[in-house]
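hey can u run this one w/ glutamine bound, need the structure tokens asap thx
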Amino acid sequence: MHQMTLAEIARGLADKKFSSEELTKVLLARIAQLDPQLNSFISLTEDLALQQAKAADARRANGESGALLGAPIAHKDLFCTQGIRTSCGSKMLDNFKAPYDATVVAKLAAAGAVTLGKTNMDEFAMGSANESSYYGAVKNPWNLEHVPGGSSGGSAAAVAARLLPAATATDTGGSIRQPAAFTNLTGLKPTYGRVSRWGMIAYASSLDQGGPLARTAEDCAILLQGMAGFDANDSTSIDEPVPDYSASLNTSLQGLRIGVPKEYFSAGLDPRIAELIHNSVKALEKLGAVIKEISLPNMQHAIPAYYVIAPAEASSNLSRFDGVRFGYRCEDPKNLEDLYKRSRGEGFGTEVQRRIMVGAYALSAGYYDAYYLKAQKIRRLVKNDFMAAFNEVDIILGPTTPNPAWKLGAKNSDPVAAYLEDVYTITANLAGLPGLSMPAGFVDGLPVGVQLLAPYFQEGRLLNVAHQYQLNTDWHTRTPQGF
Ligand code: GLN
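ok here u go:
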């Protein structure tokens, strides 16, 4: 039962082969048995899950239908869930119970999805390895000595290990696509503004975007359908109609123009990954796509720009955690300043403190123009590169990451080494474009992802290309041993 995709579950529930309650019990037992190896959950919500599953079964018995009605999922622990701990992977929010549901959580619950729990993540979504969580590192089910990627590593590890079919995640600089690549999943970062950020604890507000992590493009279409849409509570939400993502999955790829940026194949890319990317290009060519070499000349400046903008926004967003209004408060503060200093010093981990300091520095008088403003100008250049490229092609294709998942601890002493691994993913966030990662093969037994980028609001095109690719390849069906 645990091997089923969301699409298969929807069919099974519709055909009354099993109930949502039965499935939920099987998956909760599986999580209890296997998750101690992975640490992919921060909180389990068994009671809520069983209650939601029973309610979904009752709705089906009353004649209701819907792909998510009774489907088990989990939420990354930065989506606020009313009355349930929402920790953001931080000691700062270890005791925080959200007073309301995030829009994404409310929409999925209304569609009948069953919440099994809240998944582990890098603290405040800062990281690429899921090692900065207050609740401990998450392990990659493909090799327990390796990281699952981050910051949505808990969602990725849980779905890859078949503890559940799909989960929500967020992507500020790659945190949906990179863990998808590292764990053999399909993950989609939507266009900025497509999915509401209301109730999603902010890291870098101009870059953050929620999206689905699942095993197939077909399942990402189902989950995105439940997440996307205008929300008046989010001032950056965009009022565009939401298309039927499942309806366009079977469009032919004949004549689709795919651009492959020459800058992607520079020295930093593992040659074995380069070969797998070339294989995926050939597979899409066979399906009728036309391949064209393109250029993204400003790509080299994207990492330094991102690592100024994201910490700058984070330093501002995280100023609300002051020991007064939310979360952790130090013991016996001597005065207000001591309360601020010690609550923040004790509540935030090392990486979060590093980013707050970098961000506050970049925003300070005298440095603002040199760093923050400069980074914003680079951001525009990165976007312009994409706009020029999308005049010539329909999709941009390349690797999701330059290397496969590294060993736990391997980059802990060198944060910049980890930042450099984001080279292929962060440009989409800087430009606000949608991007998808899908399985493309293995290197040393570890999964490799291929990334597809599309123009604004072309999530359907990404899902269509990925689905056609998955009909003709079987990488996405591989299961990690022991799970
Ligand atoms: N690795 C990037 C960072 O640490 C991206 C994280 C994310 O997308 N949340 O900022």
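The radius of gyration is 21 Å. anyway lmk if its weird
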